[in-house]
Amino acid sequence: MNQATLLLIPFATPFIAAIAASFLPTKARNAAASLSSLTALIGVFSLLWLYPTVASGEVVRFAAEWLPSLDVAFRLRLDGFAWLFALIVQAIGLLVVIYARYYMSPEDPVPRFFSFLMAFMGAMTGVVLAGDMIQLVLFWELTSFFSFLLIGYWNHSEAAQNGAKMALTVTALGGLSLLAGVVVLGRIVGSFDMDIVLASGQIIKDSPLYLPAMVLMMLGALTKSAQFPFHFWLPRAMAAPTPVSAYLHSATMVKAGVFLMVRFWPVLAGTPEWGYLIGGAGMITLLFGAWAAVFQNDLKGLLAYSTISHLGLITLLLGMGTPLAAVAAIFHIVNHATFKASLFMAAGVIDHESGTRDLRRLSGLRKLMPITATLAIVAAGAMAGVPLLNGFLSKEMFLTEALEATEGRDLSLLVPVLATIASALSVLYSVRFIHQAFFGPAPTDLPKTPHEPPRWMRFPIELLVLTCVLVGVIPALTIAPLLKLAVLSVLGPETPYYSVSIWHGFNLPLLMSAIALVGGTLAYVLLGKHINRAERAWIIGRFSGKRAFDRSMRFLTMTAEWTVRQLGSRKQQSRIRTLVLFAILAATVAAGATGLGFAEAGIKIQRPGIGFTILWVIASGCAIAAAWQAKYHRLAAVSLMAGCGLVSAITFVWFSAPDLAVTQMLVEIVTGVLLLLGLRWLPKRSVEMAPSKTDFRSRRRRAADFAIAILAGTGMAVMAFAVMTRPGESHLANFFLEESYPRGGGRNVVNVLLVDFRAFDTMGEITVLGIVGLTIWALLRRFRPAEESRGITEQRRVQDRHDQRHEQRKSGDTLKETMLIPAVVMKWTFPFIILLALHLFLRGHDLPGGGFAAGVAMSVAFILQYMAEGARWVEDRLRIRPLYWIGGGLLISALTGVASWLFNYPFLTTYFQYGSLPWVEKVPMATAVLFDLGVALLVVGATVLMLTAIAHQSLRKARDVEPVQSAEEGL
């Protein structure tokens, strides 16, 4: 297996595992955990396999062309920084999965949890490995979506629901800002390829679009990493299960923001604007988060605000704009991942085994949970920056850069002083965490008696804490090679000399660390009791980001409601009238500005034949009559509309378009039947309900609607005439006529166009068709027909009265006799229509037909069976399962496109070749036929699903109601 293909493993396997886990039984906790563990383990080993290549300085790339002419491709890119970050995502993901196996209750739908978790891992890996900026935004938004599912996993909890919605709203809006910034950056560079963008730093900084691009992209990063003023969503996300919190804070989601800053640091950093935006946000967040963490009484709340503070530290380092500060930021990203994951897991163990996370109720757990207490104390020491632990090393580098990066600048002492204060605050909340939870008297009145967790539940914490110690004691043997790998890939030739050794001598940064350690500890000794009694943070407690968010959302909701009240209408007719008028106005303005080209066309109007004229006179009459009858005589209106459709089909034949004629006829049949079935359940209307002739307001409205309709129809006719009389030959049409067979392997240009040249459009269209079918099915599941439509129809009532007047007959006999011959004929036609559908499908690549026509034809076969014997009879004999047809059709179409990637061709590239079959000899074979098969299956599934949803209304218990119209009026 080559290196590029190996790169697909850590990216693709989490998504495959997510799909597989979703099909597991609800109680299959062990199976789901084993599948997820194996997936993460495979990802870790595949990344380790790629280490020698990345360590040599090579960038591993994978590219699958999509639209080569537009430089659109699916690209993966693995350099040193991406390798280290992806390893963190996969390795900590593995530990979280092991931990979650014991944390999650067997009563929960655990396979669903692991399905979401694996998808979350895959999305984050996609962000890290993205080789295209648009692709990065796609996976960026997927992380927001899957985090929403994970945060709201316990959907019975209102806090979980609110936290999930808040997280999705803030981070998704940030994602839109990122998308806008990426588009601007792509405009500057001329490409979205990450390699080209990262090599265009000077071009980007010299561009007048640099500032909007940088601001928009960094707004996306700041919202994702919960930087001030977008910090408020992260503490509310603590309603998620603790394994989610551990993963979200240490390796995913919030780390995506700082990853983005580091990734684009070479091309965006180093300007005053960058320093003010990123450095300023980082400094405020560092101090704000640390101060708020001091006063939190919830273990997870304290850790959440500490995450905000540490992410602020990383952001501040990146905002300084110096290479050494970037080194320190990358180093702290790694260190924070290890100690924060272990701390969240320890907090989860305390909650799991004692039943509470409230620091005011916890005390003396050191005696009841000695191993867990030791692990948590060491991890908290790393968070506080205690010597011989990994957090100390990166915090030393931070303090060094706080001194050197601001030297010679205005207020040069301010940054080091604030950095020292922030470090002291981190010591303060770390000491409070340790003292309140593990020291003091034994706890009383807890929901559970605290005890050590299961051995394997504690194993991930032990491994992470061991990593904190090893990195802190022997950094040169543990983290130095990996850090060098990441730093070189980001800074390149600008990489300065740096050292991660434990001892740098007695210097000012060491003194600042000592002041922070002593000052933070002393502050807790002096103020600890007051802090423990505080209900909210001093000074800043009165300011609530959540309250501001809620007010903003309420304002937007009220504004939207006011807009709807002022400009909207509860009646669909008024809305359609407004839309049509705006469309007419827009078309008039456009035509007035540019003209319709009649003068240049040199039009010579040919007199149509008498037959064609008569044909369209009939169609016009049908259209006018259908509009006239639509309100009170729906059956007549649908029948007249079918006459218009028939004339359209004949017109297609007239103009030598048999493919369109076949499709038009088949669609006309299906839509006609579905419309009649649907209209059966609408409220009935009678002429008596019409407004009186003296109601001038109603007559004026109808006259206005008539005028609008005439105007819109005339405008469409003029526009169509202008398009069809354009001068000159169509080079595009000639291209398709000439290249249909050489490139697509088919002589039916229309079908080759649909399944080859524009297959991606077709795939989007069938996806929409499937969604429409599912939507109709979902809506009609809860649909209740109008009261007057539920009873037996007047026609059926007359038939039953006739049966009841004769003793030898029973109700329903007349109906059966009336439908006897048609029912027999419709049942007999079933196999023949299926053969017709197969015939249309097989000939579609060279002759009129194709997958869509075949799918509609097969749908007609099922419709006839429903009409002949009813829903129960058909479904007792045929297991149609339209949902499977929709899913299978879409999957086959998608896999046909994906298969072309395996042969290094763009998505949905087709291949054709002649093959030999016994007794048939040479047979043309094209992969587009498989795509066409998916189209046919989905069309059948969507149509039958809609038919089933409508037909099942008849299975509801019918009730006799008084008729509101005569039998002659029908539908």
Structure description:
- By secondary structure, the chain is mainly alpha-helical.
- The chain is 72% helix and 3% strand.
- It has a two-stranded antiparallel sheet with strand order 1-2.
- Helix 2 (8-22) packs antiparallel against helix 3 and helix 29 (610-629) runs antiparallel to helix 30.
- 43% of the residues are buried.
- Residues 957-971 have low confidence and may be disordered.
Sequence-ordered SSE layout with sheet pairings:
Layout: H1 3-6, H2 8-22, H3 29-55, E1 60-67, E2 72-78, H4 80-103, H5 110-129, H6 133-151, H7 158-189, H8 194-198, H9 201-206, H10 210-224, H11 233-236, H12 242-250, H13 254-263, H14 265-268, H15 272-294, H16 299-320, H17 323-354, H18 365-368, H19 370-384, H20 390-404, H21 414-438, H22 455-473, H23 475-478, H24 480-491, H25 508-533, H26 545-567, H27 572-594, H28 598-601, H29 610-629, H30 634-654, H31 658-679, H32 696-724, H33 731-744, H34 749-757, H35 759-781, H36 787-790, H37 794-804, H38 813-843, H39 851-869, H40 871-877, H41 882-901, E3 912-917, E4 921-926, H42 928-951
Antiparallel strand pairs: 1-2, 3-4
Helix pairs in contact: 2-3, 2-5, 3-4, 3-5, 4-5, 4-12, 4-17, 4-22, 4-24, 5-6, 6-7, 7-10, 10-13, 10-15, 12-17, 13-16, 15-16, 15-21, 16-17, 16-21, 17-19, 17-20, 17-22, 17-24, 19-21, 19-22, 20-21, 20-22, 20-25, 21-25, 27-32, 29-30, 30-31, 31-39, 31-42, 33-34, 34-35, 35-41, 35-42, 38-39, ...
